[in-house]
Amino acid sequence: MSNSGVISPAPADSLVQRLTRMNLQLLTITMLLTFVLLATATWYVARAHQLHAAELSARQLANSVSPMMVFADRAAARGELEAFSRRSDLLLVQVQTPAGEVFAQWQAVDNTPLPRVMPPAAASQQVGAASATLRGLEVWTPIQLKGETVGVLVLRESLDGLRTSVLVLSAVAMALITVAILVAWRGLLLVQRRALAPLVELSNLAEHIARERDYSKRANVYRPDEVGRLTERFNDMLKRIEVWQADLHQKLEQEQEAGQQFQQLAHKDSLTGLPNRLYFQGALQRYIGASVERHELMALMFIDLDNFKTVNDKHGHDAGDEVLCEVARRMTSVVRSRDVLCRLGGDEFALILPELPDEAAAEQMAQRLIDAVRVTMTIRGQIMPIGATVGLAFAPVDANDPAALLNASDQAMYEAKRAGKNCYRRALRAAA
Fold it and tell me: Largest alpha-carbon pair distance within the chain?
């Protein structure tokens, strides 16, 4: 395929960028959700592990101090607790008698006691208990000797160190996730830009063709995928348009040559002899231009015959043609010499009134046209119930271009129809 030529760059909000943003948002949400779940799971697993380790340590310590309680050796028990206090994050270790009295204890200097999670009566139970919160954990372990409970060991530990470790680990993970997202963003942008390059090129080529009307361009087909097949169909369409355009250009040249020979006939209505729609369009353009340039008032009347369809249906098209000729004659008899009366087609006429002294002069002309058409008309011995409804618009008061002025007069004519026909209405002025 031939090159498509110089193509303008993709717009700022392109398909590549939108897809990259969507994929990146999905990736970010997925990674953040995974991070939250992993951080939460890490915290609970680590806390459970530390709680289990504290329970094992408490049982070992309970076995060590059980003989000391039997022999009431408080000093040895305190020594054992002090040796055990080398354990990190330890807040309190306490040995209680079955009655709940403190036999020996070690407490950290900066200890903030945790709320008691077990009632004193639990000291006599044969099984231990444990509890954990966000701040710390507490373990109750019975001290037994030969199957008899001789006391209770209470162990309290802080979870500050564990929480700090989890937070540090989470911060590192979040930093790594951020870096991964940035890398993924660049990667997605490059990958999708490369993957969508044929589609972006096709879009730019379509914009170029629409702007320049150059249908000789062709898009490159890179791969036989969906975009490749779309490109092939697009090139086929361009080829057909190019052929059609060349054929149309040739026909237009032929018609232009023929049209020069019949230019005079082309501007005249064959039935009434009035200027036709083609002449009217050019004349309206010229008169509006002169009105705007000279600051002169001009008017356009859109005239529609009333009951013409009834005449055609009841008396036939030949009678309808005679009615149109008679209407054209009557209206021609009341207009000024410089006015331009045209037949637009069917039962529609238009009247251009240049160089008006004021709007009242046009309104008087509209009424004269209506009165002239309304005079009893007899065709082939039959009375024709023909009337005229007129819409009136002024330039440059209501509009200063042909299409707008014609539309304003057309709307005014419909207002006159709704008002009961056989009358005229002026175009409504826009509110200031």
Answer: 147
